[in-house]
Automatic annotation (TrEMBL):
Taxonomy, superkingdom: Bacteria
Positions of the Aldehyde dehydrogenase domain: 17-467
Sorted UniProt keywords: Oxidoreductase
Keyword Oxidoreductase in annotation: yes
Protein name as annotated: Aldehyde dehydrogenase family protein
Keyword Cell membrane: no
Amino acid sequence: MRDIERVLTEEWAATPADEWITKLDPADGSPVGQIPVVPPRRVVEAVQAARAAAPGWARTSPAQRAAMVHEAARAIEECADDLAWLTTREMGRPVGQAAESVAAGIGTLRQYAELGPLHRGRSLAGEWGATDLMTYQPRGVAAVITPWNDPVAVSCGLIGAALVTGNSVVYKPSERTPATGWLLGRILDGVLPPGVLTTLSGGPTVGALLTEQPVDVIAHVGSSATGRRIAQAAAVTGAALLRENGGKDPLIVDADVDPAWAAEQAATGAFANAGQLCVAVERIYVHERIAGDFLDELTKRAEQFRMGPGWDPETTLGPLVDLALRELVHDQVREAVAAGAELRCGGELPGGPGAFYPPTVLANCAEAMAVLREETFGPVAPVVTVGSFEEALRLADGGDYGLAASVLTGSVAHAQQAWRELDVGTVKVNDVFGGAPGGAAHPRRASGSGFGYGPELLDEFTTVKVVHLAPAPA
């Protein structure tokens, strides 16, 4: 047990609670700790404390708020190794990749600390003797509910944007990474005024109760099913809503690209973080002209991954977050094979402890299969052979999700056609994980709503007021 686990275990043991979350390492089943679940009254009290702190935080100058967020980024940087270690222990991500994710979260906090004081309204052209303004104001109390697959980076983005725009925050991290969320919340709270940020540990019941409270905005990153329930709660309370939810992101491989390079891109997109990314490649449409070579190369690359615990430096593919997710992934693969898909590699449960699942390549998949319709969130690459680029576009544009899509093509005309016609928030051409910092998009359909990144995220946490100032009569 590392020192950070020992320290947190002592803190948790001293916390009174009627219910506990027992978190196990998905690599070997060893205990990470028992985290106390907050009782319902604590959820209510947290929102009340945030409501009481909101006016003072809103009146704090943007420069002062930004300075505190900068200080928070520095404090997180000092604990970066501990946060990366806990991420690996709780959800299995190789520790080097977990460290990169923590660094991304620190960078995002600093980004919003710089952007916050620059967020501005505008003046309007009104009467000569009057002044007309559109001015931004914080919404008030923000409920921030974050996922387990990238617990530090996503949390830092949403919390950072909420804080610099003058909102108080009630933070509910995922019950699948409770220790990581606990530590992150404790670090942030240590540099902020009382009540400005409160962390709630617990499962779906705690999250559901939070969304039913009188908060002003709910920011959620997670599954589409949870997102729909949150949307229903927000419709009752009137809270503004920001959601980035599930995806079933397609990859289109055109006839004119190098199949080996395309397979490398596909393997990166499908198997990074064991497929546990919202923007993972979850279905592949490859032109029949290169399909054979592409499948051979993709299979070869899948077989090169080394499964193992995330804390082993030789590991390139860690476990899934838990056995429950592994069973869901395996069910989709078994159903596809039974329906006629060709299993090129993987697809079998490994022996021994842990929630490991091998990189899996499926050929000859059909649109009726769950592996092409439902979010998988595992290291599975289902491949469909198509006869034309237009057919690939049509198939890629189907389904309930609309988060992102990738296209590999040497044709400028096809690239233009793809980004214009694909009904998704983000289209990536010739680079499955590329993109300039600060990009923000609107997800479609079951994938959510609102800007989740970039300078536009500041707009989600603020509301606009129009002011008309006219002189009094003499």
